[in-house]
Amino acid sequence: MNALAARRRHPAAIAILIILGLFLTGAVYAALAPKPADATTRALPAQSVEEGKALFRANCSTCHGLNAEGRATGTGDQIAGPPLAGVGAAAVDFQVGTGRMPLPRPDVQAPANNEIKFTQDEIDSMGAYIASLAPGPGVPSEEAVDPTKGDAARGGELYRVNCAMCHNFAGAGGALTRGKYAPPIEGVSGRHIYEAMVTGPQSMPVFNDANLTPESKRDIIAFLYTIDEAESPGGMPLGSLGPVSEGLFAWVFGLGLLVASAVWIGAKSA
């Protein structure tokens, strides 16, 4: 008994207990931590990593660094291209697949571009390379973005709570501060909408699975597809920009018509 008490008072006993506690905590967390669902992520071939690395170094390393570590401009601490470890294949597929990257020139925001420089296989290869650097969001599977499997009515509620304040009630986009803007999301593919939610490009916040479940993201995609397909019940939508464009139309054309009528009546009575 005295020998056991002596071991408890040994200087190394506290360190050993702390190490054992950390080990057990890590083991329990690893066993109980939620795993990403296979149904929501599209697998990328492992052999494409080297191809993606070559493409990245030839087209992206000027701004993002030779090993995606990021690169400063040389003026203070300003970053020309942020580090990419941890952004995941989803960020690559969104940024490159929408033509935002490679960025043609420095600007406050990277605009979408219909002229995509790379094929989908090349984009997948670069995504596989970036994903190999550190864990990050993966490219969603077709099932995860299938609007026919989503609830558009529930998606509309989620959209109005989480997205409409920036992207407009009809997805027409809107202005932000310092020259930035929330882009229109009319006609955007479900895959890119999902990727934007999980990666948070530009000024957009990240909506991970704790904020919006994969099912909720699919519901939002289903809602946005119904907007794309629906006809305007009130006639000309005027860009779906709400009372600003409608008020401008009333002032310009309504007052213009009144002024023209007054001039016409005055000319007739003269």
User: According to CATH, what is the topology of the largest domain?
Assistant: Cytochrome Bc1 Complex, Chain D, domain 2
What's the tally of helices?
11
Radius of gyration: 27 Å
One letter per element, helices H and strands E, the order comes to: HHHHEEHHHHEEHHH
Text of the CATH class of the largest domain: Mainly Alpha
Task: Write the topology of this structure.
Blueprint: H1 2-8, H2 12-32, H3 48-59, H4 61-64, E1 71-72, E2 79-81, H5 88-97, H6 120-133, H7 152-162, H8 164-167, E3 174-175, E4 181-182, H9 190-199, H10 214-229, H11 243-269
Helix pairs in contact: 3-6, 5-6, 5-9, 7-10, 9-10
What report would you give on this structure?
The protein is mainly alpha-helical and about 270 residues long. The chain folds into two domains: about 40-140, Orthogonal Bundle (Cytochrome Bc1 Complex, Chain D, domain 2); about 140-230, Cytochrome c-like domain (Cytochrome Bc1 Complex, Chain D, domain 2, Orthogonal Bundle), CATH 1.10.760.10. About 50% of the residues lie in helices and about 5% in strands. The chain has eleven helices and four strands. A two-stranded antiparallel ribbon has the order 1-2. Strands 3-4 form a two-stranded antiparallel sheet. Helix 5 packs antiparallel against helix 6 and helix 9 crosses helix 10. The longest helix has 27 residues, at about 245-270.
